[in-house]
Amino acid sequence: MSLLFRPKYLLGFSTILAFAAVSGCKVGPNYQRPSVPPAPAAYKELPPPPNPPNGTWKQAQPSDAALKGKWWEIYNDPELNSLEEKIAVSNQTLKAATQQYFEAREQVRVARSSYYPTLSAGPAISRQRTSANLPSATKGLTYNTFSLEGQVSWEPDLWGQIRRTVEQARANAQASAADLANVDLSLCSELAMDYFELRGLDTQKQLLDETVASDLDYLKLTQTRFKGGVATEVDVAEAETQYESVKAQDIDVGVARAQYEHAIATLIGVSASTFSLPPMPLTLALPAIPAGVPSQLLERRPDIAAAERLTDAANAQIGIAISAYYPNVTLNGIGGFESQNAGTWIQGPSALWSLGGSAIELLFDAGRRHAVTAQARDAYEAQTANYRQSVLNAFQEVEDNLAALRILNDEGATQTAAVLASERSLALSTKRYKGGVTTYLEVLTAQTTQLTNQRTQANITTEQFAASVQLIKALGGGWDISQLPPM
Predict the structure, then answer these.
(1) What is the pLDDT of residues 222-266, one digit of tens each?
(2) Alpha carbon 447 to chain centroid distance?
(3) For 7-156, where are the E strands, in sequence order?
(4) Domain 1-29+118-131+139-156+331-360 belongs to what architecture?
């Protein structure tokens, strides 16, 4: 229906609608954060705290060792610190995620603009001639029309559709901000892992270089003994085989190292053809990673925050769908000047105005609104399930990497003992060979065993650093939910 009002009544009607728009109801459910699986008191893979020496517990204080924003500084590696700083400046994936966040942020402003009326104005000039066959006094008349009109239109938010839309846009923007933080965390952790893998390969390269030099010495010794009639030609062949085999392994390490170097170049936004890192074996001390308590994880993971914010947005969509059941109320007004002559265009007698309002209710849509509302509720339930699953995944990732560090620590200690034993075995076999007690086959076996154990030890060290980076990522990398913009 359409309604026209006299000016003296319009002010009162507009005041009522304005009050209703501000204080009116918001249809649809108000958002409450969904429940999630309860957090355990402590991580299963962390050892229990030691008993206090005097039998009393000290009150917990904020820890200076807690993860900070630049979490990579915990490794005390200047080269890694320098590379990580370049991600924020040059990484194209991060720039794309930043622009997506800016886009979502502007959508909040777009949604808020619907709170206010729209105003348009403009002049119009026309020249017209009426038909000469009209029965009126204006037949065959040619005249000009000069008009200047402004139009105001406003839809008061009586049912909360605009407010729900703003809620949805705000939640989506915050989810985008959390996604941006998650992209940043993923890129930084990927770079750290690539960096430690590269340095682990440098450790193996150094180890293989030393082994190649040692095997060359053994080959020369065997050749000398063969010339003296002490060793056999088989001994020389075995020594030469060992030397060439290890030399091939030494060369092969370069393939993987080059790939990690190229990956790092891409992460910091430079061409792989212009980037290189000097060899540097992995000799850093593995830092302790402060894990905190499981209940903090919900506030420290950006992916969990993004899933929760998307749940809020899905809830707001239910209210938007329900508002379609209610009538759309629109107020509009037109005012301006109109005249046949340019000289009397902007004068009091040329003024014109029109005020009115309309309320339109959809009576039949073949169940469309019902289906759209049900669809919105289903989407909310699906997003709630995704949110809860992200929480479970987060706990799993933390436990996985805590377990990896614990097991790798035990394995590393055992492997160190194995390396020491293989070194003693090679020394004894070499002494026996030089004394003519045994053949070179015993030395060859000891060499192979020692190299295998040393490379395994280097791999374990690399895996420990990779697991520590994965643990930092699983813990959120020092991020927390307070960093979400309020919008």
Answers:
(1) 999 999 888 889 999 999 999 999 999 999 999 999 999 999 999
(2) 47
(3) 118-129, 142-154
(4) Single Sheet (2.20)
